[in-house]
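Hi F.,

I've been meaning to write this up properly since the lab meeting, where we talked about keeping a consistent format for the predictions we share between groups. The idea is simple: the sequence comes first, exactly as it goes in, then the structure tokens exactly as they come out, then a line or two of notes. No screenshots and no reformatting. I'm using this chain as the first example so we have something concrete to point to.
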Amino acid sequence: MESEGRAEWLEARRKGLGGSDIAAIMGVSPWATEMDVYLDKMGLSKDKDSAAKARGRYLERAVAEWYADKNEVEISAGGHFHGRADFMMGTPDFWVNVPGKSDKWGLEIKTARSDRGWGKEGSDDIPPYYKTQCHWYMLISEQEVWDVAVYFTMKDEFRQYRLVKDESFHKEMLDKATSWWMEHVIRESPPELDGSKASAALLQNNFPEDNGESREPSIREFELMLELNSVNEALKGLKERKDTTVNMIKELMGADTIIVNENVKATWRLGNGRKTVDAKAFRRDHPDLAEKYTNTTEPTRTFRFTYNGE
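Output, unedited:
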């Protein structure tokens, strides 16, 4: 997708809930939370591309043609469409047609490094994130079936799966999406805060600067600070337990490099020595070069916490 077309696609995406959005709202996305979706719809987030996303876009057409040849069908671009409500939005990868027949269904293309989370070919046993995405497209387009073609890059293997319309799940998605859109987009009320980077970004956006003032914590603030201390202590204990367990494994491994079975794998290798740059000395000896290659990021507020109790 060209950069200009991709920018238009990203802007259109903010006007409704798409397949990736509904997966996050339903709590099955491994990459996004409800807060991520909220920031996106409010125009407060930036699209972040990645090598995996780029790989998927480049391979999409090839995998789709593989599917078409294998099944002796024709494919056409999925485009952009809305459902019975304006916020119901879909951008499927392809539509499938059988030559000489009126049969039509949707097709999603995926690429993955491994087949972890993917079941037997021909079944509907695919990762929940992708399954929810496809059922959302089925609901919007009123289709009975939806196919998924996936290429596993590490295995060099092609598989295809078929999902069938599920009325009860479609109703569950629609109810959730409708209430979510009304509450968080129409009323512009954010979801509850969580531990995601999206929640931190929202707070940074809402309170970008501090006022320099100091005060006593409120009762609620004090309760949360005590809870934070308890969590920190628990994490400290878990880290100590982890480090001890690692050392016990190392002792048993001795000089062996790898221990592995079908369930677990541990390696203890001799690596290269770590190389570091003495930034202080470099800045002292080459101040002009140091200044030339020094970048300043946008200022952000930093949260720190200390506990002085018993």
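Notes:
The mean pLDDT is 92.
The two ends are 59 Å apart (CA to CA).

If this format works for you, I'll send the rest the same way.

G.
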